[in-house]
What we know:
- The chain has 12 helices and 14 strands.
- α1 runs antiparallel to α10 (417-433), α7 runs antiparallel to α8 (355-384) and α9 (388-409) runs antiparallel to α10.
- 54% of the residues lie in helices and 16% in strands.
- It has helices spanning 16-60, 67-94, 122-131, 142-154, 237-251, 295-313, 317-351, 355-384, 388-409, 417-433, 436-443, 454-459; strands at 102-104, 110-113, 116-119, 135-136, 167-168, 171-172, 175-181, 184-195, 210-222, 229-233, 256-260, 267-270, 276-279, 283-287.
- It is an alpha+beta fold.
Amino acid sequence: MDLHVAREIDPTGPGDSSTRASGLRKVWARPRLSAAVFENLIFALSTVLFFGFGVVIAEQINWSWTLIFYVIVLWAVIAYLALPRLHRILTALYVPNYFIGRTRTANGILGDPVNLAFDGDVEQVHAAMTGAGWTQADPVTLKSSLRIIFSSIARRSYDRAPVSPLLLFGQTQEFAYQQEVEGNPAQRHHVRFWKCPEDWLLPGGSRVEWLAAATFDRSVGISLFTLQVTHKIDSDIDVERDYVTGSIVENVPGVHVHRLENFSTGYHSRNGGGDMISTDGALPVINVSHVPAPTPAAAVADDRSDSAVDSVARRPFSITAALLLSILMVVLSVTGQIQQIESARTEIAEDFSSPEVVEAMTWATIAVVAVVHLLIVVLAWRVFSGSRLARWLALLLITTSQMSQVGQYIGGVRPSFFAMVSMMTGLLIIYAMTSQTARDWTSRPRGRRRPGSRHAAAAG
C-alpha cells in the first residue's frame, strides 16, 4: 500500500504570483489527499475482510471429507490475500522508501540485496549476458506463471522461466537473465536488472547506469513471511555475484570490472521470502561499454521499447478479472438467493394465506438482489473502460456488502456453499480493484487507457 501525503511547497518569496501558486497547490492537494485517504481506507478494510473470511472458513473445518478442501482454501486465502496485504500496510510504515542497497517485494518486504552494477547501453548489457551464456527470462504473465508451475511439478526444463518481480527505484526490474541447472526449473542462477535514474549517484558519489541483484535458486519451498510457494535462495549471495561476474569476464571480450569495496557493511539478514542471506558488502561494477552490440540486438531492444509503451496503454489483467468475477458473482448470488428463498418459502407462507402474495414477495426479493448485483456489473464495465469514480463506487458497494456477510457468518449462521463461493468471488473483485495496476489504469488520462493505443501512450 502506498501512503500518499500531499505536501504544500512554501512560496519562494512575497508577491501575487507566489500567493496564487500556493493557492493552486492547496486546491489540488485536497482532492489528492482525499483520494489517498479513501484508497488506503478501502485497502485496510479489504485486509480485515480477508482475515475475517479466513475465520469463516476455519469455522467450517471439521473431521469430515471436506477437511482437506477447507484447509487448502484457508491456506490460499491467508497466504495469497490476507498476509500480503497486511505486509503492504506495515512495510509502508516502517520500510524506508529510499535507496538502501536492497530491493523490495511487491508486498513491500525487503528483498534481495543489490550486489552488481553495470555500465553500458541496454544493447551492450544484453550482448554481454547473451555472450556469457545467459538466457533472458520470459515476462511474468498468466501463461508463463502456469508453465513454470507445471514445469516445477513435472521437473521439466523451462530455461526461460519468469522471475518474480522485485522493486527498485519504485519500479520492477526491466529484464532478467538466468541459467537453469541440469534442466531442473527448481534450481537456477538468475540476475535482475534496473536502469538507474538519470544523474543518480550511488552512496559515496559513484555513478553507474544499471544495478542488478544476482541470487541462486536452490529449491522450491514456502515463504516464511507470506506462506506462499516460492523459490528458496542460497544464503551466500556473494558466491552468485562472483559467478555472474566471472561468466561475463571469461566469455565476453572487452569487459572491465572494478570493485567498490565496502559499498555496504557486511551483514546477515533475510530476503522477501524469509531466506537467510549474507554478503561482504562489495559491489563489482562491470563495464560493458566496449562490447559490440550487433544490429539485431538493437532491433530487439527497439521492439522491447515498443512493447513497454504498449504495456502502458494495455488494459491490466486485474481489470479484466474484476469484470468477469462481477458477472460470476451475479450468477452465484442470484442462484444462492433463489435456493435460500425456496427453502424459506414454507415459513413465509405461514404468515401470508395467499400463495400469490408469497410468490410475488419471492420474486421481488430475487429481483432486488439481481438489480444490486447488476449495478456492480455495470460499475465493473465502467472500470473496464477506465472510470475511477466507477471503481470507487464499486469498491464501496462490494466492501459494504462483504463486511455485512462476513459479520453475519462469523460465529453465527452457517453459510451455504453458494454463499461461500459468492463471498470469495466478492473478495477477489475487491483484491483486483484495489491492486496497484487497477489504480494506475483508472488514474491515467483517458487517451492513455485505450488498449493497444501506442501513439496515445507515447503522447502521454
